[in-house]
Write a structure and sequence with these properties.
The structure is a homotrimer.
Chain A lengths: L3 E4 L2 E3 L3 E5 L1 H11 L4 E6 L8 E3 L3 H15 L17 H10 L2 E7 L2 E2 L7 E7 L3 H4 L5 E3 L2 E5 L13
Antiparallel strand pairs in A: 1-10, 2-9, 3-8, 4-6, 4-10, 5-8, 6-7
Chain lengths: 160, 160, 160
Amino acid sequence: MKAHTHYLWFTTKQRQEIIDITEQVAEQVQESGVAEGLALVSAMHITASVFVNDHEAGLWADILKWLETTIAPWDPKRYRHNETGEDNAAAHLRSLTIGHEVIVPITGGRLDLGPHEPRLAHPLSAPLTGSVGEGVPCHHQPALILTDPEHRLIVAFSLL
Amino acid sequence: MKAHTHYLWFTTKQRQEIIDITEQVAEQVQESGVAEGLALVSAMHITASVFVNDHEAGLWADILKWLETTIAPWDPKRYRHNETGEDNAAAHLRSLTIGHEVIVPITGGRLDLGPHEPRLAHPLSAPLTGSVGEGVPCHHQPALILTDPEHRLIVAFSLL
Amino acid sequence: MKAHTHYLWFTTKQRQEIIDITEQVAEQVQESGVAEGLALVSAMHITASVFVNDHEAGLWADILKWLETTIAPWDPKRYRHNETGEDNAAAHLRSLTIGHEVIVPITGGRLDLGPHEPRLAHPLSAPLTGSVGEGVPCHHQPALILTDPEHRLIVAFSLL
Protein backbone atom coordinates (compact mmCIF):
# COMPACT_ATOMS: atom_id res chain seq x y z
CA MET A 1 0.00 0.00 0.00
CA LYS A 2 1.41 3.39 -0.93
CA ALA A 3 0.53 6.94 0.07
CA HIS A 4 -0.22 9.76 -2.35
CA THR A 5 -0.10 13.28 -0.94
CA HIS A 6 -1.14 16.43 -2.75
CA TYR A 7 -1.40 20.04 -1.64
CA LEU A 8 -4.05 22.23 -3.24
CA TRP A 9 -3.92 26.01 -3.11
CA PHE A 10 -6.84 28.39 -3.38
CA THR A 11 -7.02 32.16 -3.54
CA THR A 12 -9.77 33.98 -1.69
CA LYS A 13 -11.03 37.52 -2.18
CA GLN A 14 -12.99 38.04 1.04
CA ARG A 15 -12.58 37.45 4.78
CA GLN A 16 -15.25 34.74 4.71
CA GLU A 17 -15.74 32.70 1.59
CA ILE A 18 -16.96 29.24 0.64
CA ILE A 19 -15.23 27.43 -2.22
CA ASP A 20 -16.47 24.25 -3.90
CA ILE A 21 -13.42 21.97 -4.10
CA THR A 22 -15.13 18.78 -5.29
CA GLU A 23 -13.62 18.80 -8.78
CA GLN A 24 -10.07 19.29 -7.58
CA VAL A 25 -10.50 16.50 -5.05
CA ALA A 26 -12.19 14.19 -7.60
CA GLU A 27 -9.28 14.89 -9.99
CA GLN A 28 -6.82 13.67 -7.39
CA VAL A 29 -8.93 10.58 -6.75
CA GLN A 30 -8.71 9.81 -10.44
CA GLU A 31 -4.97 10.53 -10.63
CA SER A 32 -4.38 8.27 -7.63
CA GLY A 33 -6.03 5.32 -9.34
CA VAL A 34 -7.70 4.44 -6.04
CA ALA A 35 -10.60 2.01 -6.57
CA GLU A 36 -11.85 1.40 -3.01
CA GLY A 37 -10.61 3.64 -0.24
CA LEU A 38 -10.75 6.64 2.01
CA ALA A 39 -10.32 10.30 1.11
CA LEU A 40 -9.27 12.61 3.97
CA VAL A 41 -9.70 16.28 3.12
CA SER A 42 -8.10 18.39 5.82
CA ALA A 43 -8.27 22.17 6.07
CA MET A 44 -4.82 22.23 7.68
CA HIS A 45 -5.58 25.67 9.03
CA ILE A 46 -7.52 26.54 12.16
CA THR A 47 -9.66 29.34 10.81
CA ALA A 48 -10.89 27.23 7.91
CA SER A 49 -13.11 24.16 7.64
CA VAL A 50 -14.07 21.47 5.18
CA PHE A 51 -17.63 20.24 4.89
CA VAL A 52 -19.88 18.21 2.61
CA ASN A 53 -23.15 19.86 1.62
CA ASP A 54 -25.14 21.34 -1.26
CA HIS A 55 -23.70 23.91 -3.63
CA GLU A 56 -26.69 26.24 -3.67
CA ALA A 57 -26.25 30.02 -3.48
CA GLY A 58 -29.09 30.56 -0.99
CA LEU A 59 -27.75 27.86 1.34
CA TRP A 60 -24.23 29.31 1.20
CA ALA A 61 -25.67 32.70 2.13
CA ASP A 62 -27.60 31.03 4.98
CA ILE A 63 -24.42 29.34 6.25
CA LEU A 64 -22.39 32.57 6.30
CA LYS A 65 -25.26 34.46 7.97
CA TRP A 66 -25.75 31.65 10.53
CA LEU A 67 -22.05 31.66 11.39
CA GLU A 68 -22.27 35.41 12.03
CA THR A 69 -25.58 35.64 13.88
CA THR A 70 -25.86 32.28 15.68
CA ILE A 71 -22.46 30.63 16.02
CA ALA A 72 -19.81 33.33 16.54
CA PRO A 73 -20.26 37.02 15.64
CA TRP A 74 -17.09 38.50 14.09
CA ASP A 75 -17.04 41.43 16.57
CA PRO A 76 -13.30 41.37 17.46
CA LYS A 77 -13.56 43.13 20.81
CA ARG A 78 -15.60 40.36 22.43
CA TYR A 79 -12.77 37.84 22.30
CA ARG A 80 -9.65 37.60 24.48
CA HIS A 81 -7.75 35.91 21.64
CA ASN A 82 -7.83 39.20 19.77
CA GLU A 83 -5.78 40.87 22.51
CA THR A 84 -2.84 39.15 20.77
CA GLY A 85 -3.30 41.58 17.87
CA GLU A 86 -5.26 39.16 15.69
CA ASP A 87 -8.91 39.90 14.91
CA ASN A 88 -10.16 36.47 13.86
CA ALA A 89 -11.16 34.71 17.10
CA ALA A 90 -14.64 34.19 15.66
CA ALA A 91 -13.11 32.29 12.73
CA HIS A 92 -11.50 29.84 15.15
CA LEU A 93 -14.88 29.16 16.80
CA ARG A 94 -16.61 28.77 13.42
CA SER A 95 -13.95 26.27 12.38
CA LEU A 96 -14.50 24.30 15.62
CA THR A 97 -18.23 24.14 14.83
CA ILE A 98 -18.11 23.09 11.18
CA GLY A 99 -14.98 20.95 11.54
CA HIS A 100 -11.36 20.73 10.47
CA GLU A 101 -11.58 17.83 8.01
CA VAL A 102 -13.93 15.35 6.36
CA ILE A 103 -13.24 11.77 5.38
CA VAL A 104 -15.17 10.42 2.42
CA PRO A 105 -15.38 6.86 1.11
CA ILE A 106 -14.04 6.09 -2.35
CA THR A 107 -16.11 3.40 -4.05
CA GLY A 108 -15.59 2.19 -7.61
CA GLY A 109 -12.91 4.82 -8.13
CA ARG A 110 -15.15 7.78 -7.25
CA LEU A 111 -15.84 9.92 -4.19
CA ASP A 112 -18.85 8.26 -2.59
CA LEU A 113 -20.80 11.31 -1.49
CA GLY A 114 -24.26 9.77 -1.72
CA PRO A 115 -27.02 9.66 -4.28
CA HIS A 116 -27.85 13.37 -4.19
CA GLU A 117 -24.29 14.27 -5.23
CA PRO A 118 -23.48 16.82 -2.54
CA ARG A 119 -20.25 18.77 -2.85
CA LEU A 120 -17.08 19.11 -0.80
CA ALA A 121 -16.73 22.71 0.21
CA HIS A 122 -14.16 24.72 2.02
CA PRO A 123 -15.13 27.87 3.92
CA LEU A 124 -12.13 30.01 4.61
CA SER A 125 -11.33 33.01 6.74
CA ALA A 126 -8.43 35.21 5.68
CA PRO A 127 -5.73 35.80 8.31
CA LEU A 128 -4.77 39.12 9.91
CA THR A 129 -6.40 42.14 8.34
CA GLY A 130 -3.19 44.01 9.09
CA SER A 131 -1.01 41.82 6.92
CA VAL A 132 -3.57 40.91 4.27
CA GLY A 133 -5.93 43.88 4.12
CA GLU A 134 -9.57 43.91 3.11
CA GLY A 135 -10.09 42.64 -0.38
CA VAL A 136 -6.52 41.34 -0.72
CA PRO A 137 -6.44 37.75 -1.96
CA CYS A 138 -4.63 35.25 0.23
CA HIS A 139 -3.47 31.72 -0.54
CA HIS A 140 -4.90 28.61 1.09
CA GLN A 141 -4.31 24.91 0.66
CA PRO A 142 -6.81 22.38 2.15
CA ALA A 143 -5.87 18.69 2.59
CA LEU A 144 -7.10 15.46 1.07
CA ILE A 145 -5.90 11.94 1.75
CA LEU A 146 -6.86 9.04 -0.48
CA THR A 147 -6.41 5.41 0.46
CA ASP A 148 -7.34 2.11 -1.16
CA PRO A 149 -6.65 -1.54 -0.66
CA GLU A 150 -4.03 -2.04 -3.36
CA HIS A 151 -2.03 1.01 -2.45
CA ARG A 152 -2.63 3.89 -0.18
CA LEU A 153 -2.45 7.13 -2.01
CA ILE A 154 -2.33 10.28 -0.01
CA VAL A 155 -3.29 13.52 -1.53
CA ALA A 156 -2.87 16.30 0.98
CA PHE A 157 -3.69 19.94 0.75
CA SER A 158 -2.60 22.34 3.44
CA LEU A 159 -3.86 25.78 4.29
CA LEU A 160 -1.39 28.71 4.51
CA MET B 1 -5.49 -5.20 1.88
CA LYS B 2 -9.06 -5.34 0.63
CA ALA B 3 -12.06 -3.03 0.96
CA HIS B 4 -15.49 -4.11 2.20
CA THR B 5 -18.35 -1.74 1.43
CA HIS B 6 -21.89 -2.06 2.75
CA TYR B 7 -24.92 0.18 2.41
CA LEU B 8 -27.43 0.26 5.25
CA TRP B 9 -30.95 1.56 4.83
CA PHE B 10 -33.22 2.95 7.53
CA THR B 11 -36.83 4.07 7.47
CA THR B 12 -37.87 7.14 9.42
CA LYS B 13 -41.34 8.19 10.51
CA GLN B 14 -40.73 11.82 11.43
CA ARG B 15 -38.94 14.88 10.01
CA GLN B 16 -36.32 14.73 12.74
CA GLU B 17 -35.43 11.42 14.27
CA ILE B 18 -32.44 9.80 15.96
CA ILE B 19 -31.72 6.15 15.25
CA ASP B 20 -29.23 3.98 17.15
CA ILE B 21 -27.23 2.17 14.44
CA THR B 22 -24.56 0.58 16.64
CA GLU B 23 -25.75 -3.00 16.23
CA GLN B 24 -25.94 -2.82 12.45
CA VAL B 25 -22.44 -1.32 12.33
CA ALA B 26 -21.06 -3.84 14.83
CA GLU B 27 -22.58 -6.64 12.72
CA GLN B 28 -20.65 -5.41 9.69
CA VAL B 29 -17.46 -5.20 11.73
CA GLN B 30 -17.94 -8.82 12.64
CA GLU B 31 -18.79 -9.87 9.08
CA SER B 32 -15.70 -8.09 7.80
CA GLY B 33 -13.41 -10.07 10.07
CA VAL B 34 -11.43 -6.91 10.78
CA ALA B 35 -9.24 -7.28 13.87
CA GLU B 36 -7.45 -3.92 14.08
CA GLY B 37 -8.72 -1.07 11.95
CA LEU B 38 -10.83 1.95 11.21
CA ALA B 39 -14.59 2.18 10.82
CA LEU B 40 -15.86 5.17 8.83
CA VAL B 41 -19.60 5.72 9.22
CA SER B 42 -20.74 8.35 6.75
CA ALA B 43 -24.24 9.84 6.59
CA MET B 44 -23.87 10.28 2.83
CA HIS B 45 -26.66 12.82 2.92
CA ILE B 46 -26.43 16.50 3.78
CA THR B 47 -29.43 16.82 6.02
CA ALA B 48 -28.34 13.92 8.20
CA SER B 49 -25.46 13.36 10.61
CA VAL B 50 -23.70 10.55 12.42
CA PHE B 51 -22.53 10.93 15.99
CA VAL B 52 -21.29 8.91 18.94
CA ASN B 53 -23.08 9.52 22.23
CA ASP B 54 -25.35 7.98 24.87
CA HIS B 55 -28.61 6.24 24.00
CA GLU B 56 -30.73 7.86 26.69
CA ALA B 57 -34.24 9.12 25.95
CA GLY B 58 -33.84 12.36 27.91
CA LEU B 59 -30.59 13.20 26.14
CA TRP B 60 -32.09 12.50 22.72
CA ALA B 61 -34.97 14.84 23.61
CA ASP B 62 -32.39 17.44 24.74
CA ILE B 63 -30.47 17.09 21.46
CA LEU B 64 -33.56 17.58 19.28
CA LYS B 65 -34.71 20.53 21.41
CA TRP B 66 -31.21 22.08 21.34
CA LEU B 67 -31.05 21.76 17.54
CA GLU B 68 -34.37 23.61 17.30
CA THR B 69 -33.89 26.33 19.91
CA THR B 70 -30.11 26.96 19.88
CA ILE B 71 -28.54 25.72 16.65
CA ALA B 72 -31.02 26.27 13.80
CA PRO B 73 -34.78 26.78 14.23
CA TRP B 74 -36.78 24.92 11.55
CA ASP B 75 -38.74 28.08 10.57
CA PRO B 76 -38.53 27.74 6.74
CA LYS B 77 -39.08 31.42 5.90
CA ARG B 78 -35.87 32.58 7.57
CA TYR B 79 -33.62 30.81 5.07
CA ARG B 80 -32.76 31.76 1.49
CA HIS B 81 -32.17 28.10 0.63
CA ASN B 82 -35.90 27.51 1.02
CA GLU B 83 -36.63 29.89 -1.86
CA THR B 84 -35.68 26.92 -4.06
CA GLY B 85 -38.89 25.18 -2.94
CA GLU B 86 -37.25 23.06 -0.27
CA ASP B 87 -38.07 23.68 3.39
CA ASN B 88 -35.15 22.00 5.14
CA ALA B 89 -32.40 24.65 5.27
CA ALA B 90 -32.28 24.21 9.05
CA ALA B 91 -31.50 20.51 8.57
CA HIS B 92 -28.42 21.43 6.50
CA LEU B 93 -27.15 23.69 9.30
CA ARG B 94 -27.83 21.04 11.95
CA SER B 95 -25.89 18.53 9.88
CA LEU B 96 -22.94 20.96 9.61
CA THR B 97 -22.95 21.30 13.40
CA ILE B 98 -23.14 17.66 14.41
CA GLY B 99 -21.11 16.36 11.48
CA HIS B 100 -21.35 14.26 8.34
CA GLU B 101 -19.39 11.19 9.49
CA VAL B 102 -17.52 9.60 12.37
CA ILE B 103 -14.48 7.35 12.25
CA VAL B 104 -14.11 4.83 15.05
CA PRO B 105 -11.17 2.58 15.88
CA ILE B 106 -11.61 -1.18 15.66
CA THR B 107 -9.56 -2.94 18.30
CA GLY B 108 -9.59 -6.69 18.90
CA GLY B 109 -12.34 -7.11 16.33
CA ARG B 110 -14.76 -4.71 18.01
CA LEU B 111 -15.78 -1.07 17.62
CA ASP B 112 -13.61 0.72 20.16
CA LEU B 113 -16.08 3.28 21.48
CA GLY B 114 -14.57 3.61 24.95
CA PRO B 115 -15.23 2.06 28.33
CA HIS B 116 -18.68 3.57 28.84
CA GLU B 117 -19.99 1.88 25.67
CA PRO B 118 -21.54 4.88 23.97
CA ARG B 119 -23.60 4.28 20.84
CA LEU B 120 -23.35 5.30 17.18
CA ALA B 121 -26.44 7.27 16.31
CA HIS B 122 -27.82 8.78 13.18
CA PRO B 123 -30.14 11.80 13.35
CA LEU B 124 -32.05 12.19 10.13
CA SER B 125 -34.18 14.83 8.50
CA ALA B 126 -36.67 13.71 5.87
CA PRO B 127 -36.42 15.43 2.47
CA LEU B 128 -39.07 17.65 0.82
CA THR B 129 -42.40 17.59 2.65
CA GLY B 130 -44.00 17.92 -0.77
CA SER B 131 -42.66 14.62 -2.05
CA VAL B 132 -42.62 12.71 1.24
CA GLY B 133 -45.43 14.21 3.31
CA GLU B 134 -45.63 14.45 7.06
CA GLY B 135 -45.50 11.07 8.71
CA VAL B 136 -44.56 9.25 5.51
CA PRO B 137 -41.55 7.01 6.02
CA CYS B 138 -38.52 7.63 3.83
CA HIS B 139 -35.49 5.50 3.21
CA HIS B 140 -31.96 6.37 4.32
CA GLN B 141 -28.61 4.64 4.14
CA PRO B 142 -25.64 5.87 6.26
CA ALA B 143 -22.03 4.79 5.53
CA LEU B 144 -19.43 2.78 7.41
CA ILE B 145 -15.91 1.96 6.32
CA LEU B 146 -13.84 -0.68 8.09
CA THR B 147 -10.14 -1.16 7.62
CA ASP B 148 -7.55 -3.43 9.23
CA PRO B 149 -3.95 -4.36 8.75
CA GLU B 150 -4.42 -7.73 7.02
CA HIS B 151 -6.98 -6.46 4.58
CA ARG B 152 -8.92 -3.31 4.29
CA LEU B 153 -12.59 -3.96 4.43
CA ILE B 154 -14.93 -1.19 3.57
CA VAL B 155 -18.48 -1.30 4.66
CA ALA B 156 -20.32 1.71 3.33
CA PHE B 157 -23.81 2.90 3.97
CA SER B 158 -25.24 5.75 1.97
CA LEU B 159 -28.20 7.96 2.70
CA LEU B 160 -30.95 8.46 0.10
CA MET C 1 0.11 -3.52 7.02
CA LYS C 2 0.00 -3.63 10.81
CA ALA C 3 -1.99 -1.70 13.42
CA HIS C 4 -0.47 0.08 16.41
CA THR C 5 -2.87 0.98 19.22
CA HIS C 6 -2.03 3.11 22.25
CA TYR C 7 -4.16 4.41 25.09
CA LEU C 8 -3.20 7.76 26.65
CA TRP C 9 -4.46 8.81 30.06
CA PHE C 10 -4.85 12.35 31.35
CA THR C 11 -5.83 13.71 34.72
CA THR C 12 -8.04 16.76 34.95
CA LYS C 13 -8.59 19.10 37.89
CA GLN C 14 -11.72 20.92 36.76
CA ARG C 15 -15.13 20.10 35.28
CA GLN C 16 -14.17 21.75 31.97
CA GLU C 17 -10.58 21.79 30.88
CA ILE C 18 -8.59 21.91 27.65
CA ILE C 19 -5.38 19.89 27.42
CA ASP C 20 -2.80 20.14 24.64
CA ILE C 21 -2.04 16.55 23.65
CA THR C 22 0.10 17.23 20.56
CA GLU C 23 3.38 16.06 22.07
CA GLN C 24 1.96 12.77 23.33
CA VAL C 25 0.41 12.11 19.93
CA ALA C 26 3.58 13.13 18.06
CA GLU C 27 5.57 10.79 20.31
CA GLN C 28 3.36 7.89 19.27
CA VAL C 29 3.74 8.84 15.61
CA GLN C 30 7.49 8.63 16.05
CA GLU C 31 7.34 5.36 17.98
CA SER C 32 5.14 3.87 15.27
CA GLY C 33 7.69 4.59 12.57
CA VAL C 34 4.87 5.65 10.26
CA ALA C 35 6.18 7.67 7.29
CA GLU C 36 3.02 8.42 5.30
CA GLY C 37 -0.33 7.78 6.92
CA LEU C 38 -3.37 8.74 8.94
CA ALA C 39 -3.60 9.56 12.64
CA LEU C 40 -7.05 9.11 14.22
CA VAL C 41 -7.31 10.75 17.64
CA SER C 42 -10.58 9.72 19.28
CA ALA C 43 -11.93 11.07 22.57
CA MET C 44 -13.59 7.73 23.27
CA HIS C 45 -15.89 9.45 25.73
CA ILE C 46 -19.08 11.34 24.97
CA THR C 47 -18.57 14.34 27.17
CA ALA C 48 -15.14 15.04 25.70
CA SER C 49 -13.90 16.18 22.29
CA VAL C 50 -10.72 16.39 20.28
CA PHE C 51 -9.95 19.37 18.09
CA VAL C 52 -7.11 20.99 16.18
CA ASN C 53 -6.56 24.68 16.89
CA ASP C 54 -4.17 27.23 18.42
CA HIS C 55 -2.71 26.85 21.89
CA GLU C 56 -3.29 30.42 23.02
CA ALA C 57 -4.61 31.20 26.50
CA GLY C 58 -7.03 33.89 25.33
CA LEU C 59 -8.51 31.60 22.66
CA TRP C 60 -8.92 28.76 25.15
CA ALA C 61 -10.75 31.14 27.48
CA ASP C 62 -12.93 32.24 24.51
CA ILE C 63 -13.73 28.60 23.66
CA LEU C 64 -14.80 27.72 27.20
CA LYS C 65 -16.86 30.92 27.50
CA TRP C 66 -18.46 30.33 24.05
CA LEU C 67 -19.40 26.76 25.02
CA GLU C 68 -21.12 28.13 28.14
CA THR C 69 -22.84 31.22 26.72
CA THR C 70 -23.57 30.28 23.10
CA ILE C 71 -23.51 26.51 22.61
CA ALA C 72 -24.89 24.85 25.77
CA PRO C 73 -25.11 26.53 29.19
CA TRP C 74 -24.17 24.13 32.00
CA ASP C 75 -27.42 24.83 33.96
CA PRO C 76 -28.36 21.23 34.85
CA LYS C 77 -32.07 21.81 35.38
CA ARG C 78 -32.72 22.75 31.76
CA TYR C 79 -31.96 19.25 30.46
CA ARG C 80 -34.05 16.08 30.62
CA HIS C 81 -30.91 13.94 30.56
CA ASN C 82 -30.11 15.21 34.04
CA GLU C 83 -33.29 13.61 35.40
CA THR C 84 -31.22 10.39 35.34
CA GLY C 85 -29.16 11.79 38.21
CA GLU C 86 -26.29 13.03 36.02
CA ASP C 87 -25.64 16.77 35.71
CA ASN C 88 -23.58 16.91 32.51
CA ALA C 89 -26.13 17.08 29.68
CA ALA C 90 -24.46 20.30 28.50
CA ALA C 91 -21.16 18.45 28.14
CA HIS C 92 -22.80 15.97 25.75
CA LEU C 93 -24.05 18.82 23.57
CA ARG C 94 -20.66 20.57 23.62
CA SER C 95 -19.01 17.32 22.55
CA LEU C 96 -21.49 16.99 19.65
CA THR C 97 -20.57 20.50 18.52
CA ILE C 98 -16.79 20.30 18.66
CA GLY C 99 -16.58 16.64 17.66
CA HIS C 100 -15.62 13.22 18.96
CA GLU C 101 -12.41 12.68 16.98
CA VAL C 102 -10.01 14.20 14.46
CA ILE C 103 -8.04 12.48 11.76
CA VAL C 104 -4.75 14.08 10.77
CA PRO C 105 -2.44 13.22 7.86
CA ILE C 106 1.05 11.94 8.62
CA THR C 107 3.53 13.14 6.02
CA GLY C 108 7.27 12.49 6.15
CA GLY C 109 6.90 10.84 9.54
CA ARG C 110 5.27 13.85 11.21
CA LEU C 111 1.72 14.99 12.01
CA ASP C 112 0.78 17.20 9.08
CA LEU C 113 -1.13 19.94 10.87
CA GLY C 114 -0.36 22.71 8.40
CA PRO C 115 2.23 25.45 8.12
CA HIS C 116 1.09 27.40 11.17
CA GLU C 117 1.69 24.40 13.46
CA PRO C 118 -1.66 24.30 15.26
CA ARG C 119 -2.05 21.90 18.19
CA LEU C 120 -4.19 18.86 18.94
CA ALA C 121 -6.26 19.62 22.01
CA HIS C 122 -8.67 17.71 24.13
CA PRO C 123 -11.37 19.51 26.08
CA LEU C 124 -12.75 17.30 28.79
CA SER C 125 -15.72 17.33 31.11
CA ALA C 126 -15.45 15.34 34.32
CA PRO C 127 -18.17 12.72 34.86
CA LEU C 128 -20.76 12.64 37.68
CA THR C 129 -20.08 15.14 40.43
CA GLY C 130 -21.55 12.59 42.84
CA SER C 131 -18.90 9.96 42.17
CA VAL C 132 -15.98 12.24 41.41
CA GLY C 133 -16.63 15.36 43.44
CA GLU C 134 -15.66 18.91 42.68
CA GLY C 135 -11.95 19.32 42.29
CA VAL C 136 -11.26 15.58 42.39
CA PRO C 137 -8.99 14.55 39.54
CA CYS C 138 -10.39 11.94 37.17
CA HIS C 139 -8.61 9.85 34.59
CA HIS C 140 -9.22 10.11 30.85
CA GLN C 141 -7.75 8.37 27.84
CA PRO C 142 -8.31 9.84 24.32
CA ALA C 143 -7.65 7.79 21.16
CA LEU C 144 -5.18 8.04 18.29
CA ILE C 145 -4.87 5.77 15.29
CA LEU C 146 -1.88 5.90 12.97
CA THR C 147 -1.72 4.26 9.57
CA ASP C 148 0.87 4.19 6.83
CA PRO C 149 1.50 2.38 3.59
CA GLU C 150 4.12 -0.06 4.78
CA HIS C 151 2.25 -1.07 7.90
CA ARG C 152 -0.74 0.26 9.67
CA LEU C 153 0.07 1.23 13.16
CA ILE C 154 -2.75 2.00 15.49
CA VAL C 155 -2.18 4.03 18.56
CA ALA C 156 -5.43 4.38 20.49
CA PHE C 157 -6.27 6.41 23.51
CA SER C 158 -9.60 6.04 25.24
CA LEU C 159 -11.42 8.26 27.68
CA LEU C 160 -12.63 6.85 31.04
